[in-house]
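Service request form, structural biology core

Requester: graduate student, group of Dr. S.
Request type: structure prediction, single chain
Budget code: on file
Notes: please return the result as structure tokens.

Sequence provided:
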Amino acid sequence: MVKKLLYLIVLSSSLLTGCKTLYSNRMLETPKDFKYDALPIIDIKDEFKLSANDEFTFKLFSNDGYKIVDMNINIANTAVQGVKSSTYTIKNDGFSKLPLLGLVKLSGLTIAEAEDTLQNRFSEFYIKPFVLLNVSNRKIIFFASGEGSAKLVPIQGNTISLIEAIAQAGGIPKFGRAYSIKIFRGESKNPLVYKVDLSTLDGYKVGNIVLQSNDIVYIDARQGLARNLTQEIAPYLGLLTSLLLTVFYFSRVRNV
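Core staff response, request fulfilled:
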């Protein structure tokens, strides 16, 4: 009877320790033969480019904004009247609807290029317009598999590298794999997927790429079979053991 109970415990444990159970918190898994996109050429001087769902505000001034540099003059008086500094959104098609201008294509432009585009368009209505544009929702989405760690890393300057984003998120987790970092970029239907190895100097040289707003950085975790086994199936084994001990007890009582 005891042997049968032990056999049942082992069998039940095996059923509960499948990959789906042990690593149920994993996301964004790729097939073993998945072909990753080639990493872009690193240029830390690259600026962010505006993309769909970016939210921004802009200030419009006339006469090249010359009064902005005069600290003795109220800056508010230099702003063009009638164009409010509201928050605008770039739609999925890359266009944003702006006052006076209507639809303007901004997706794919740097902030400087977007400012030049708006200045050229507003020149139809104002003398030497000057535009200051600010993107308010730029961020990197950071996940660490197996750690339950998820963070939104805000983008403060004009650029942020992969290393900087990881540092702001708290670094590589204890069970994270520095040699298996995935970056997802673009629309979810057809994203670019990069794989970076930061465990070596050579990997760092080619992998410390400049990130874009809304990039997803996902750090894979070591499998840690023993650790996951303990965490995932301990509650089930406890319940199963209690049940089997109860059955064993009553079977012994019956045989007495």
